[in-house]
């Protein structure tokens, strides 16, 4: 706690030239020793790798000193004399105690090679994964040479890949185990097993030196199973997880529904397995920090089955993202599974949105063509992406001499300044720090760097076969540097490196991975859920959700044959209801190239039957039946004893050429339907919205309905929506929002054309309209009476919602047309819970209704004769039953009236919407079930 050994007078007794906090090299005969580094706080394990470089695990010290290294570290201790030449000892100083203007001046606090977080992991044992006595390495062959590091306090084990560069090491760590005991040390046995020494008791120190411990053996039991090798953010809405070999789709059964992505400042993979909680306030604070769920719109397996693709909501912030994939235990070979304890049926990986966006063709200029690399040093990236098949193709392309563009945001803050413990401050100020960054390539290099909208000066140099670009960041820069690197086409494999130094230490160092931030990632944090992050998609401008729904159900697109939306429709292919979380480029890509990525639950099968037939489609089990669905939406029922042979198809069942069949407008509308939420009314009332309806409630009122196929051929309908100027507060009388939402909703119905007008339609619209729907502050001033009479006399249908029944001083004339009307200011009204008692229950509009509970507004003391209408619903007001919903049949014209409709949420109540849609259909003398499919989009009902 007193790292500088400050006495009562405030003078520090710490001497950097003493042996305190040092690593000593001792001669074989113990006659000499020398200091090889200073500033070590609590080292546990030392190990040399096969290159002869020394590494050490060192535990954090910020619990005791504000800037005494907040995270546990993996250190590369350089043995060359130049490593710490600016320090008083000429050796590296690793920051404990840190530099201080009075107590420890003149030193540079050496950055770690890797930091293990969140705080309080207590890194302990470490071993390099090398064969012992000619034996095997632990895990896949690709893990050879990696540092296996134990974290005692939380029971963790990481494998840490170390990539050597001329200026130092770049590290990437992957968590591979979480134990329920204090994990002290690890070693690799000659058989290739990982032996783990654990201590009993709680963290930090357990049951003490005399307490019991246990040894565990971790076996790599099934080398045939795919192992995740890399996880990254390919785009702002897409994660990718690479595996070292093809993945059997059966291993990922239920991927789209069961995958889970969480993110947050302190989120890590496999957090649910963590049972050890170090007893520190900062750990409790970590646990109180919010964890957010990132919605996954869809999930698929690449055509080569080496990469899982997850399309998500847009990444909201720079954080750690933990992904839990379902992993079927059925994929483990039988012999191995029988010898193993039960395995958790998931695979956990994590990623940070670090790295660089890569374009291999400058002219492409589209994010859709971009790729991802973890580091600007191409040699480092190539080693870190080994095992990723999708990156193999990138390296193959680059080896032909292709040019490339890299984009990233570079974090140059506090390059040689130790982080400060959250909630604490320092009693001094650092001198200004200026970072200088140098890029070197083997072909022409163009560098653009900027910060806060201002370009930085870049110096270029061409020397022999190398091109160099250098820029200097502003002193104490507080924002990320926008960086673009253009590497010209050339011959052979491109080479690119980047190093940095500061005004205080000219020694070049490599960039750690966390210093590269993807261009689309925000530095900001979110205070709650990620609602509202959706941004407009330029390619969908002018598109119509309603028209797009009709394209979806058209023969040209044929989507309806195989796919459902929000659980309604066919089940041969995946439900497309979550495509609203996808990005435009990936959805368009899947339409253009259906085989690019295939949902593992819908992999096509080629089935050879014993009668000689060969069928291709998606095979699904329904009870004791097997159903094979083909690209035309046909389903063939099969028995298992009919099948001679079955193997996965090499292509997607989804047919090629859909995009080519559609016009540009139809394609835009289809993508609008797939990628934007269904039209709904705004929930902007200051009052809490009523509870959601249940699916069973909706199914009950729709019981006995006829489907649209039974109603064909459908009569073409012209519907005109008539709105007015909004005349109430938020969430009330929102006529314009209703017009927008219901124009899209009704236009999505087959054989329907919808037009909209403010106040009242002109003669041209009236002449062609079949149905007029009024939601406005009503009026019956001239010329409305004559025109409505003519409209009704020719068989037109009229629908009046809520305040549209207002006729003021023309109320009696208005009531003759619609049955009952209001005179503003002379009626009674009430907002709140509304119980509608249903009358004339044999009327088709109120079929299956007996009573309906709403939260809306009722009217009474209206003008008109209830005997002139067919009463559908009443509410009790002032002790009397008052009309709230009715119809009037002028034969041939028809009128439907609903007083409920005051609050916006009522229009998205599926039980009210059924009545309203039935009323609309009834006024046109159409079957009341004609619009049943419009009950569900954006309805406020539980899923």
UniProtKB/TrEMBL annotation:
Lineage of origin: Bacteria, Pseudomonadati, Planctomycetota, Planctomycetia, Planctomycetales
Q: Which residues form the signal peptide?
A: none
**Keyword Metal-binding carried by entry:** yes
Q: Which Gene3D superfamilies match?
A: 3.40.50.880, Cytochrome c-like domain, TolB, C-terminal domain
- InterPro entries recorded: 6-blade_b-propeller_TolB-like (IPR011042), Class_I_gatase-like (IPR029062), Cyt_c-like_dom (IPR009056), Cyt_c-like_dom_sf (IPR036909), Haem-bd_dom_put (IPR013427), ThuA-like (IPR029010)
PANTHER family, per the entry: LARGE, MULTIFUNCTIONAL SECRETED PROTEIN, LARGE, MULTIFUNCTIONAL SECRETED PROTEIN-RELATED
Segments forming domain Cytochrome c: 543-678
The Gene Ontology terms for molecular function here are: electron transfer activity; heme binding; metal ion binding
Q: Give UniProt keywords alphabetically.
A: Heme, Iron, Metal-binding
Identify one Pfam family in the record: ThuA
What species is this protein from? Planctomyces bekefii
What is the name listed in the Swiss-Prot or TrEMBL entry for this protein?
Answer: Cytochrome c domain-containing protein
